[in-house]
């Protein structure tokens, strides 16, 4: 997965800075999921290889010409789960090996103007 963060094109003065909110996100493993919901967790998540074998397409963001903000020095020092596993001599995601060749579809989506 790749991601970029762009400068706010609207400017800070366009946002309501007087009213804040919070959102709590809980990540659960399969045992915790069953304890919280009372049901079985969803089936095994498809891997990159599963997607490729099924002929499913990967999507690409059309952001040519946009420049991402500089990376945070604090966050850029963090490792992914896979990188941490390699450093520890483990393989935390053995079923999710990266693909070197995957079908990519380029999709341009028009967004309508309006008040929402």
Which helices and strands appear, and what pairs or packs with what?
Elements: H1 30-37, H2 48-53, E1 58-60, H3 73-76, H4 81-87, E2 104-106
Parallel strand pairs: 1-2
The chain-level structural class is mainly alpha
Q: How much strand?
A: 5-15%
Number of domains: 1
What is the average of the pLDDT values?
79
- Strand order of the biggest β-sheet: 1-2
User: What's the β-strand tally?
Assistant: 2
The shape is extended
Enumerate the spans where pLDDT stays under 50 for 5 or more consecutive residues: none
Binned, the helix content reads 10-25%
Number of helices: 4
Distance between the termini: 30 Å
Report on the biggest sheet.
2 strands, parallel
Over all CA atoms, what is the radius of gyration? 20 Å
Order of helices and strands: HHEHHE
Q: Would you mind describing this structure in some detail?
A:
It is a single chain. The chain contains four helices and two strands; from the N terminus they run ααβααβ. With 116 residues, it is mainly alpha-helical. It has one domain (17-106). The mean pLDDT is 79.
Short summary of the structure?
The chain is mostly helical and 116 residues long.
Give me some keywords for this one.
mainly alpha, two-stranded parallel ribbon, 116 residues, 22% helix
